[in-house]
Write a structure and sequence with these properties.
This protein has about 120 residues and is mostly beta strands. The protein contains no helices and 10 strands. It starts with a strand and ends with a strand.
Length: about 120
C-alpha cells in the first residue's frame, strides 16, 4: 500500500504563496489519482484538488480555483499543490490521499497532514 508524506506547510501572511508536496513511497502512485484535502479547526475535511494519473484530468474546489495549482512529477513520486494569493480562510491542515479512479470517491491511505496558517 502506498504511503504518503505531506510537507511544505507553514505560517504565512495573506497574499503569500506556499507549495505543498505529497511524496509517495512507491512508483505505483503514478497509476493513481491523487487528491489534496484540508480540514480547518471545527470543520469537516473538504476537497481541494485532484489530479488523475498522467495529469490528464484535474479538478479544483470552487474556493481555490485560480489560486491553487495541482501538478505531479511521477519521476519523483510526488504531487504538488502550489498555492498563491493565500487567504486566512485557507488556514487548515492539508492532507493528500490516493484513489484508484478519478471519478470515484474512494480515498486512502491518508498522509499525516501539513499545517498551513495564513495570518491577516
Amino acid at each position: 500500500q502506498v504511503q504518503l508524506v505531506e510537507s511544505g506547510g507553514g505560517l504565512v501572511q495573506a497574499g503569500d504563496s506556499l507549495r505543498l508536496s505529497c511524496a509517495a513511497s512507491e512508483r505505483t502512485v503514478s497509476s493513481l489519482t491523487v487528491g489534496w484535502f484540508r480540514q480547518a479547526p471545527g470543520k469537516e475535511r473538504e476537497f481541494v484538488a485532484r489530479i488523475s494519473s498522467r495529469g490528464r484530468n484535474i479538478e479544483y474546489a470552487d474556493s481555490v480555483k485560480g489560486r491553487f495549482t495541482i501538478s505531479r512529477d511521477d519521476a519523483k513520486n510526488t504531487v504538488y499543490l502550489q498555492m498563491v494569493s493565500l487567504k486566512p480562510e485557507d488556514t487548515a491542515v492539508y492532507y493528500c490521499a490516493t484513489s484508484p479512479s478519478f471519478y470515484t470517491g474512494t480515498w486512502g491511505p491518508w498522509g499525516q497532514g501539513t499545517q498551513v496558517t495564513v495570518s491577516s
